[in-house]
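Dear colleagues,

As part of the handover before I leave the project, I'm documenting each prediction I ran so the next person doesn't have to rerun anything. This entry is a single chain, and its sequence is reproduced below.
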Amino acid sequence: MCLLMLVALLPATAQIRGNNIVVTVEPDHQDWNYKVGEKAHFIVEVRRSGTLLDNVSIDYAAGPEMYQTEKKSLTLKDGTLKLSGSMKSAGFYRVDVTAHIDGKDYKGACNAAFSPEKLQPSTVMPKNFDDFWQVAIREARKVDLNPTRRLLPERCTKDVNVYEVCFNNVAWDSRTYGILCVPVKEGKYPALLRVPGAGARPYQGDVWTASQGAVTLEIGIHGIPVTLQQQVYTDLNKNALSHYWDWGLENRDQSYYKTVIIGCIRAVDYIEQYTPWNGQQLGVTGSSQGGFLSLVTAGLDKRVTCYAPVHAALCDHTNSLNGKACGWPHYFYGKPGIIGYKMPDEWSKRTTLEDQIETSRYYDGVNFARLITDKQKGWFSFGYNDDVVPPTSAWATYNIITGPKEISIYQQTAHFWYQEQWDEWENWLLKQLGIKN
């Protein structure tokens, strides 16, 4: 009887994992790194059940990242193809392959690095950059945080109390919401601020890190509670918050990100004033947009002792004006000077390209990174295959940092994590917070 019950349960518990058909693009250097002028050789393979597939129809594009010039369609008789490419200056050479099989598309990619340690960002730092932000922070601090805290008993554990909190941001009733996790045991603790990726969503809070002995605060950026039903955020992303990252690009004081950035600093204020922080170790971390906000918070707030941006977005916006890969959201990719660009009518009525470029400099992760000091430790991680946050911008941002820093590359990842990468990230944070040796 037990065996019959187990067999009956199997269909309900079986998991769908991966694809039987896999497209790989493999470079001839294990670390995917080359020197400028070297030639990279790639082997493309299309396999079904681990075996090369005959007569496969593919499309491929090859060339400098985001500016691939070689594009072809052909049939692979034995499921394999050899390609090669090189770069005359520091950067990335990307090969994208799409196989068409039984009405479905299967993709593979490889983005080879050429002297990435020599990459430098294009963005210019405005002379009053730091003054602009310090004035904005001082003005916001004239408004009392006026915090509220609501216990979430269903999320608490024997070791951690969990709360939804909110506090004022740039003005009275301009609120920032988050999930605060505090160890139950009395004492003073290191603290970790988690800043979010793009979009709106509910947050659970970092209960695990708190259970290891830290105060954690995970914030949202849109001024709405972070404990609502998922459908609320889905609707907001499709409607009221659609493309919020473009809002106010014509003026530095009107950018949506101004309130977002001030909210991160006020979150540190909240940690200092209303949690059992020990006043010593304080970290900030996030991925994608959260990677950018990690650079922002570390650059503007010297209470931050460690920061860990993962595939940080919003870095080196103007690089595409030079015909090179730029960071998400690719503001100037295809702008005037690049063939085929036409400014949207709704933008051309109220702004110029020069306005947008000038504003972007106040919201470029590179310029915040330039403010990070040698007393703040950084850990950077990203993938070479990322087509949202190009490694060109990620490497250039890393290179501009003058303080203590580490880099951990997971070449094959696109805009996602591997488990090993996640574990390394967590362990680094625990070490910097003094929780783990």
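Residues 256-274 form the longest helix (19 residues). The chain has a mean pLDDT of 93.

All the best with the project,
I.
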